[in-house]
Amino acid sequence: MSSLNKKFPRLLPEPIKKNMRVCDLIDGAFKAYNGARLAEACRLFSGKMIAGEGLVGMSLTGALTPAGLGRSAIVPLMKAGFIDWIISTGANLYHDLHYGLGMKLYAGSPTLDDVELRREGVIRIYDVLFDYDVLLDTDAFVRQAIQGPEFQRTMATDEFHYLLGKYVLERERKLGIKETSMLAAAHQLGVPVFTSSPGDSSIGMNVAAMALRDSLLAFDVNRDVNQTAAIVYDAKSRGLTSSVFILGGGSPKNFILQTEPQIQEVMGIEERGHDYFLQCTDARPDTGGLSGATPGEAVSWGKIDPDNLPDCVVCYTDSTISLPLITAYVLSKAAPRKPRRLYDSRDAVMEKLRQQYLKKGTVEKVAHRTDVSKPKRGRSGRSVTGTKR
Amino acid sequence: MSSLNKKFPRLLPEPIKKNMRVCDLIDGAFKAYNGARLAEACRLFSGKMIAGEGLVGMSLTGALTPAGLGRSAIVPLMKAGFIDWIISTGANLYHDLHYGLGMKLYAGSPTLDDVELRREGVIRIYDVLFDYDVLLDTDAFVRQAIQGPEFQRTMATDEFHYLLGKYVLERERKLGIKETSMLAAAHQLGVPVFTSSPGDSSIGMNVAAMALRDSLLAFDVNRDVNQTAAIVYDAKSRGLTSSVFILGGGSPKNFILQTEPQIQEVMGIEERGHDYFLQCTDARPDTGGLSGATPGEAVSWGKIDPDNLPDCVVCYTDSTISLPLITAYVLSKAAPRKPRRLYDSRDAVMEKLRQQYLKKGTVEKVAHRTDVSKPKRGRSGRSVTGTKR
Amino acid sequence: MSSLNKKFPRLLPEPIKKNMRVCDLIDGAFKAYNGARLAEACRLFSGKMIAGEGLVGMSLTGALTPAGLGRSAIVPLMKAGFIDWIISTGANLYHDLHYGLGMKLYAGSPTLDDVELRREGVIRIYDVLFDYDVLLDTDAFVRQAIQGPEFQRTMATDEFHYLLGKYVLERERKLGIKETSMLAAAHQLGVPVFTSSPGDSSIGMNVAAMALRDSLLAFDVNRDVNQTAAIVYDAKSRGLTSSVFILGGGSPKNFILQTEPQIQEVMGIEERGHDYFLQCTDARPDTGGLSGATPGEAVSWGKIDPDNLPDCVVCYTDSTISLPLITAYVLSKAAPRKPRRLYDSRDAVMEKLRQQYLKKGTVEKVAHRTDVSKPKRGRSGRSVTGTKR
Amino acid sequence: MSSLNKKFPRLLPEPIKKNMRVCDLIDGAFKAYNGARLAEACRLFSGKMIAGEGLVGMSLTGALTPAGLGRSAIVPLMKAGFIDWIISTGANLYHDLHYGLGMKLYAGSPTLDDVELRREGVIRIYDVLFDYDVLLDTDAFVRQAIQGPEFQRTMATDEFHYLLGKYVLERERKLGIKETSMLAAAHQLGVPVFTSSPGDSSIGMNVAAMALRDSLLAFDVNRDVNQTAAIVYDAKSRGLTSSVFILGGGSPKNFILQTEPQIQEVMGIEERGHDYFLQCTDARPDTGGLSGATPGEAVSWGKIDPDNLPDCVVCYTDSTISLPLITAYVLSKAAPRKPRRLYDSRDAVMEKLRQQYLKKGTVEKVAHRTDVSKPKRGRSGRSVTGTKR
């Protein structure tokens, strides 16, 4: 027998039985290809990403909240303390509002006649259906909420979503529903929620329209960029791991990963990259887009710590399948963690990064070294000793 | 609210909890996109396909047995009486032998150096690894088995696999292992196993090499074509439903579906198509291949009964994820059925089809009518009254 | 023969010959599946989208400029007057800078060892390679450019890119290279270039870092949202067609399409949607994401005019294949148009939309009607007569 | 600059111009991702695969002949001497008959109502449409042709297709059409055409039905397996290269590749694998199926010569796009070759392999060595000196 094989476990699953728990099925029968990736994802998440005080950032793309995954999976993960910060498309946050506002979505079909749907005032997201009024009412909710005095200024999106979440939470309470909305839960749990494209959704659209009236609300994109880098930098400089849990790809994937180049490449502060990388996607690598780019490619950019590349997992499957499975697994296998409430320390970590940047950074070209050997002690925050090549 | 929406259930999943059973998670949280398709697949299978005496044919492509899915999922489904007949690629049957012969496969990695694997004598199927000796030993097993006198003739592949299954079953018993091999289980349970491409695998390769010596074993392709049509025709003419459970696509998908055109288009016998269609695949429809062709397209060919098109399900996901989930669901939700032992009546159903064909068929162009209105009584076997257009 | 078939052309291509021109091959041999979609895309673009004064917006995702498509395809299309405005990911604009700054990228391989690349200071985008210094030098260029006094304020991204493009153009001239950069060409031609996620790229990262110093540059997201809607509204209200040419999907796809809901759903101004929709993507519809959402789905949202749905084309193929082919076809078949220089009228169209919005819009819920029947005269700008359902 | 980059060409394409030839566009603008793969495929085919006397086998899956690619691309490649032998799905050969018999197919749409199509007697292959009569008439043609005395025996599929091709050619001539059918062209040019699944298509279905009457026609699967191996063995033992050009994947991909394991693993004859591997497919590797398996994986099986792995190309794109492009490129760049007429030497090469097998082969386990170092002289046919591990 080749000695190569000895490094790997034998592949001999037990027969599937009735009434199996999700976690037992995954451990017992998901042995190869994307099934194995999904099992590895479950074990990476429950075993390494949330071990100790490890930080977990989640990025969300694809129409996940319309599919009910906010309520079924993401809120439970947040409440269990397994998601510490979030980058989402605006659309996922906008459609999250429908749930928080008690509106009705329907599990429909992808094969309806769209011209008739348009005529009937029915909106379709693949097989999810809802009335056009759901959009109009949600839009009005956003416009009315942001008339509040606390919104009359420029702010980062985490702050904006925190403030908006309060309104959603209140509406939930008034309606007697609970744990339906990601934004409401994030407000309660102090989970910062960013969007990388603040204008790109009906939330941003309503904010923009109101700016044509007298609204003073505007988004501070620079703060978003620096704040997300600050969250990662703070964790890494305190010796914690930083993990990314990427659902889909797109701009949020880039935004959650670029925190490391922001620290290293732009700010000139030495760092090694995120520790663990877990992605569920239908994107393929060969067409070159960032959505399908592998963790290996991310290593070449300094986004991922090269030492942990073997632990990185990409599971090519629809998030509507993988996310419920991972959620059920992790909730079964790991004890809940106390929510970190990163939102509460947003100014402190920002200031910490700013100070470090003002010490190391330069307008001129950044000197660099890419020493990929493991540092002896500590993980980060050491001085840059690189020399220009 | 648009009346269109009223036809569909509200989309409002409950939060996922720890220790959930697979069937509860699927019913509770798989609400949209391929997640919803998977839930529909589970309910179609457990609720309609195996209802009453309904016949279920399974087609297998993709390297499923190397992934351990023969032992974990397919054998349990067969034992529960949920799979009545099978079309498989030769490769899935060949690699099934490794399990039945007690050989070792390993859950490896897709990123190994293949030139080194070649040098080391390690074979790779994506992330499944095994020694080259596994191939050589399995090959020798096939060659030795088919030297038996019962193999010295031309036969259909269901007969060949039945005979070969006996040797595998004996080897399993000798080794003290059980329920590891699809072929052994099929032998025991009387489940006919066909392959649409008898030369296209190491089984066929060894049979072909031995034919250069003195072996008389050869495959009767014509019988395979007619026998599979006979299985479907017999069921439909007795008023039973005929369902297809397609894993992957490829030649086995075509072969299991072409049974209906064989009856209607080639033999001139009136029929309406299979009743239920369930496919798990990664193929996409837009590139035109049969693997990704939709049930709708199959309706245009007469392969699927148009009345049941709304019940047809295609779940676009890796079978290593969908098959364990569907298996766990169906075993939990449906009572086992007594195995039908279709193999035992192979000559009888063949003769029944032959008689009908000799009555209706012609060498000349077949007259046809495509009356898609539901027949009043009975399902099939009525005279062709179509007129040539 | 069924009368259904008569509506379609016979499928009987001529044999391919040596030395064929691209446009002849596409017209002659691309007859089914995605090949046919690509041919339809070419004819839609050259025949309808750029007919008359029709407006064409392009959205860019995927790593297209690293693949050289800025220089080879996008700049030539812009110069021919076939692209009037652009939404791009930040990454495509950042990597465009490398070309404009005369830096070197390499046509490498996707199978290199990323840990070694990291050690060597080589960055990889699938199979495109370049030195880490390319990033560091480009970053320094951005930081130095934005120190100019014209950047010391809040501005929309079209304005920012226009100003930055001037620096790139100057650098090109200094280096004696030309037509290498999209941003430089956009500056010259007055093509507005937006990004939907201004912080999400190394451009945004450097802007954000500089904001920690004394830079006053910030992005006006609200203006981006309203400005893009204003471009579409102005065209439609003048009776011009508005077309979208979507490369990839992601946030830029949403941003270019949401202009119509911004007008209708948020601002309460009656409109019918974009006229022509052309997308080249590898995203699939069944996983529910916006990237793979079909034009039909967009009709249900009012993003696309239902009357033109039959003309909408989605070609599922890698943009590195489709974009050069479409470019070669369109340049061969259509006469160049005078660049529209939309950038020059940015304030005027913005003011026009603002006036209309202040007339029609409301903070309360927008009344709506979804009358999909074709208006008799004119296309838009009529008063909203809808009643709340 | 990293020395790693120096190994690769600079990526700096020229602007696309009007009226470009296909080959110039591909060389000039296809620089990364699948675009680059397509360009590499073109150069591999025109530069290496058909260099000298190199043998080229093509495998065909996906509905290519319905898309007109038989007439537009495959027949021209055959006539130019660039395709020496073929493995096809039965479906591609069956639908090829429609063209040879002068029947009408239509370039339709994928969004028609299939229940109505069924009612109207229209068959749909994604967006290709034709009358049900096309099937019925083609079926009758097959049944009538195989009544000829030359068909009254068991034969391999290459022989069957050669005989059937004669009838198609005659029909073409009678109808005054030419070069419309692959089977007719193969008959004329002596190109052997095999199918790996002889029962799996309407051709096989009609052959099977006729066997229920008095037809003696049956398929010799063993001969197919050995004959294809003999073609490869003969070429390799004469020092020629053997290349595979794989369109799609499926059973034909496996069948064309398994020729090498048939020689090495089953017959015990030393060989190194095919020399060049070129695949155009939409299958993905990560789901484990053979369709998407990489050339690297094939090296681990001995299917591909490890020394040539860097030359292997997989282009992930729809064959309706890639095949016309490759055809136009190769016809422009390479001089036609004299057709090899492999069909004429089918018995001779079979006998050569048989003799070698009877010398080296064994019923027992094959001894092996996997010496991947390049042999000094000649390529094959040397004695097996391996020792059992």
Can you describe this structure?
Four copies of one chain form a homotetramer. Chain A is α/β, with parallel strands linked by helices. Chain A has 15 helices and eleven strands. In chain A, the strands form three sheets. Chain A has a six-stranded parallel β-sheet, sandwiched between helices. Chain A has a three-stranded antiparallel β-sheet with strand order 3-5-4. A two-stranded parallel ribbon of chain A has the order 6-8. In chain A, helix 6 crosses helix 9 and helix 7 packs across helix 8. At the A-C interface, helix 5, strand 4, helix 6, helix 9 and strand 8 of A face helix 6, strand 4, helix 7, helix 10 and strand 8 of C.
Walk me through the topology.
Four copies of one chain form a homotetramer.
Chain A: H1 22-29, H2 33-49, E1 55-60, H3 69-79, E2 85-88, H4 90-100, E3 106-107, H5 114-120, E4 122-125, E5 128-131, H6 132-145, E6 154-155, H7 157-175, H8 182-189, E7 193-195, H9 202-211, E8 218-219, H10 221-237, E9 242-247, H11 250-257, H12 259-266, E10 276-280, H13 295-300, E11 313-315, H14 319-333, H15 346-360
Parallel strand pairs in A: 1-2, 1-9, 2-7, 6-8, 9-10, 10-11
Antiparallel strand pairs in A: 3-5, 4-5
